[in-house]
Design goal:
The structure holds two protein chains of two kinds. By secondary structure, chain A is an alpha/beta fold. Chain A has twelve helices and eight strands. Classes of the chains: A alpha/beta, B alpha/beta. At the A-B interface, strand 2, helix 5 and helix 6 of A face helix 3, helix 5 and helix 6 of B.
């Protein structure tokens, strides 16, 4: 009898299969967005996180519905992994009234307060102060929630980053700093921007628990995130995860990638988080080839349905242009 | 008359503001004050002196010198249901937090399609007149008045110092309060039961028939002094205190100008691209055919504020310059 045949083993296998499904779902969604961008259906800036799916999916496993998330402009994966409906995300990319930000945010500014998803923030490190405040409010009101703040290695160069990591440690706030170190701040390599590139080590110097994680291994990310969130919820103060990952595609749709080698990208592609997990599950017999094909087909269908729904959705009326600048009702 | 029954006491602008803070903290447990040296030091200008002892360090919260961090923390805490009052020592320091004020506080509601509300109050000192030179003395409230999504108030009287904070905290959107540094020691009688004031409308502080002087904040006492000088010569100036710099209450000042047919705008900001330019433009747009003279402006000289007393005085709007401008429009 193999491990997966016990009830616990079956649950664990189903969970691993779900992780694969969630990562693939993000991948299929984003690859379709790239096509839609080329077709002129999606405009503005489009930053996809192809290659970084394990970070989004792994971290979200550790959260409850009461926890809060602050994200970046590369946040489709975070939003989908959090449970923001795909229809609402796709409609936002199309600038439609049914979009999760009613067509006012676009790819970089997905919001869903019902999921405590407080936005893609397109100012690097600009989301960290918000996360501090959300966590401060939770702490002052004695709510057991944790706030996860995603940001990239580029944020290390911003003053707001250092202000906020210090504040979180000083005030012992329930914040999980999820640093997505993909080695590039747009086109600037980490070693061209930072004299000391061990980001986890540097975060620890602020007086919080901090450690590096293989960001291409979703199981490792989940394990680290669960450990961190348990520790934070238990009153252990903020934690910092340096999630070592890589962006397979260009920074945005306007990026000719002059700043990195194709060979480097190819090397990282060998550690594709989706293939890594699929290989593992295939080897242990948890994943049959036809199951993977069925999963891909089902996800493609879901994405196409979201595209159709978005295409058919209404535009926000121009008469409503100036709505939501000031509140229409009291708090 | 029953006026004899209204108890009045001698107070200062500083004490009136402190009373407003004390009342807000006592009445609503969601309210807390946060900023540099607001607690043990008692506030850079002693506004919050004694409040730490009364309300404790959680609710009168000293922060490190991290303007962007703690202003953004105020934004996050407001989103999560608190009613933070963030104090910034001077408007010049607020530039370090401009990212959070503009890109988050003023923007999140619109960018999220109306999901996120930021009921935050930010207080700061503004203005010159205390020989603090070019990094502690500027009047940049006009810049903030440029930004959709926030409200900007300038209390110039004891009543407004006492009464603007409460309604600002009740407002569902971010409100910035600009306290002119030369007003803190202003003293006079204030009703014991002074309470909330309107934060929508400008107010006529002095009635007159010959011209309208439009001012706010630290320039109001100078403008009223100029009006007294003019009265001695038989020129009766009406004085409008803008009070609310955004959204501007056009109705009050244009109604006055339609009666007097002449206007001078007094603004401690620099002239180019200033709030005075906006007020002047609105008068021209709305009252052109009622005007008997071009609208004139009295502003600060376009230099960084100098230290030496005689130079600082020369750089600022003074009653003599207001009188001269008034005589010029009266002709």
């Amino acid at each position: 009898m193999t491990a997966k045949q016990t009830p616990k083993g079956t649950r664990a296998a189903a969970h691993r299969s779900d992780l694969l499904r969630q990562m693939t779902r993000i991948r299929v969604f984003e690859e379709r967005c790239v096509e839609l961008y080329s077709a002129g259906k999606i405009r503005g800036f489009l930053h996809v996180a192809v290659g970084e799916e394990a970070v989004a999916v792994g971290v979200m496993q550790a959260l409850t519905a009461d926890d809060a998330i602050v994200s970046t402009y590369r946040e489709h994966g975070h939003a989908l992994a959090r449970g923001v409906p795909m229809d609402a995300v796709m409609a936002e990319m199309f600038g439609k009234a049914t979009g999760c930000s009613r067509g006012r945010g676009g790819s970089m500014h997905l919001f869903d307060v019902d999921h405590r998803f407080y936005g893609g923030n397109a100012i690097v490190a600009g989301g960290l102060p918000l996360a501090i405040g959300l966590a401060l409010a939770d702490k002052m009101r004695a709510r057991p929630a944790v706030t996860v703040c995603f940001f990239g290695d580029g944020a290390y160069a911003e003053g707001e980053f250092h202000e906020c990591v210090n504040l979180a440690a000083l005030w012992q706030l329930p914040v999980l700093f999820a640093c997505e170190n993909n080695l590039y701040a747009m086109g600037t390599a980490l070693e061209r921007a930072q004299a000391e590139t061990d980001l986890a080590l540097r975060a620890a110097s602020y007086g919080l628990a901090s450690w590096p994680v293989d960001g291409m291994d979703v199981l490792a990310v989940e394990k680290a995130a669960r450990h961190a969130v348990d520790r934070i919820r238990g009153g252990g103060g903020p934690c910092f995860l340096e999630l070592r990952t890589y962006r397979f595609r260009a920074h945005s749709m306007y990026d000719p990638e002059r700043y990195r080698d194709k060979a480097e990208v190819a090397r990282w592609r060998e550690r594709d988080p989706i293939e890594l997990l699929a290989r593992q599950l295939t080897e242990t017999g948890e994943l049959a080839t036809d199951a993977r094909e069925a999963m891909a087909a089902e996800l493609a269908t879901e994405v196409e349905a979201a595209v159709t729904t978005a295409e058919e959705a209404p535009l926000e009326p121009v008469e409503d242009l100036t709505r939501f600048v000031l509140s229409e009702v009291g708090p | 008359m029953t006026s004899a029954t209204v108890a009045v006491r001698e107070t200062t602008y500083r004490e009136a503001m402190r009373d407003a803070l004390r009342e807000a903290l006592a009445e609503d447990e969601r309210v807390f004050l946060m900023g540099e040296d607001v607690g043990r030091y008692g506030g850079c200008f002693a506004v919050s002196l004694g409040l730490l002892e009364e309300f404790g360090p959680e609710r009168v919260r000293d922060t490190p010198l991290s303007e962007s961090g703690f202003v953004g923390a105020g934004v996050g805490a407001a989103i999560a249901g608190m009613r933070p009052i963030v104090e910034i020592m001077t408007v010049n320091f607020s530039l370090l937090a401009l990212d959070q004020i503009l890109n988050n506080a003023a923007t999140l509601q619109h960018m999220s399609g109306g999901q996120v509300h930021v009921p935050l109050v930010i207080r700061m000192t503004t203005g010159a007149g205390r020989q603090l030179a070019a990094q502690h003395s500027h009047s940049l409230e006009g810049w903030y008045a440029h930004i959709p999504g926030i409200k900007v108030l300038a209390p110039a009287t004891l009543e407004d110092a006492r009464g603007m904070l409460g309604p600002a905290l009740e407002d569902p959107d971010p409100v910035l309060l600009f306290e002119h540094g030369t007003l803190y020691n202003a003293s006079g009688p204030l009703a014991e039961d002074a309470g909330p004031v309107d934060i929508q409308r400008a107010v006529v502080r002095r009635q007159g028939r010959d011209l309208t002087l439009i001012s706010y904040g630290g320039s109001l006492p100078k403008t009223l002094a100029a009006a007294e000088t003019l009265a001695a010569d038989g020129i009766e100036a009406e004085v409008v205190d803008l009070r609310v710099l955004r959204p501007l209450d056009d109705a009050t000042f244009t109604e006055s100008v339609r009666r007097t047919h002449r206007a001078v705008v007094v603004d401690e900001g620099w002239r180019s691209g200033s709030l005075s330019a906006e007020v002047s433009a609105r008068i021209t747009e709305q009252c052109f055919y009622d005007l008997d003279s071009p609208v004139l402006r009295v502003c600060s000289a376009e230099v960084p504020m100098p230290y030496a007393r005689h130079l600082e005085e020369a750089a600022l709007p003074q009653p003599e310059a207001i009188v001269a401008a008034a005589r010029a429009v009266v002709g």
